């Protein structure tokens, strides 16, 4: 029921109205990065995860809640600092406790332990819930006074009358948690891919700069972005090749069978997007290659040549598919387009071995340390 109620707010007819938010915040991020340069230098070295996290948090704030957290301009804002606490890597002692809990009493038991990480996480969660509650109250008051001109998702959901205030708070928190870190991870992977595939970076820059740089920022809309075939192909390949959530868990709701194997109701199933997305049986002999061109072949713009809708599980598929796919993909398109049009991008240490860290999402362990050169 709740999923059905969310669908109108996340339909493309509404997502397209959010492109100006995606674009303007992407431009703001690029401007802030340029401001980090030393006097007289065209280069700056950044940790992409830092900027990606701040930009995507601001986008979620504006598009979902109608609030700008201003994290891009100032990483020390109260909301950004509080939100970061649960996402900080636990120390060795905490990680050992997590492992011990998993092997003995179960993961839920860990959260009952009086650790510093648990205390700070709970404090942050309570702060975020209070913030979301205030958003709901402010939105309700504004709508009562006739303020129906806003296009943020919270306003649309409340206007629909589908959700109670408590459900509204829960949905806002879900958007924040599910939509922030995953897209931030995807942007890290996109920058990493641009660095290790310079030919793709050059081709993408040529397309974006030739088609978009003549337009004033305020005219950048869904039609302008979606009409760039290589930008769309590149981002689709990033999402296929580097799924930000490479595995997820589901429970069988009824007795069923998979590939001839009986699966009783209640069985826990591990769905591996990181495996399925690279299966030669679905994608062909080049499945394990990063190749945006697969999305450009005639008739393949929506499939990349895959033989099934279930071959690409980055956003899952079917009745359990992620309803935020359009939002996340559109956001990534704008972020990548702005970065590649404004900067030449290379890894600070291209010889360094890639290591991946897995939490809510999977991302490069170092956050992608990249050297950006401002372009004329």
UniProtKB/TrEMBL annotation:
Heme binds at residue 322. It holds the Pfam family p450. Keywords: Heme, Iron, Metal-binding. The keyword Ubl conjugation does not apply. Its cofactor is heme. One of its GO terms (molecular function) is iron ion binding. InterPro entries: Cyt_P450, Cyt_P450_E_grp-I, Cyt_P450_sf, Cytochrome_P450_monoxygenase. This is Cytochrome P450. It comes from Fusarium xylarioides.
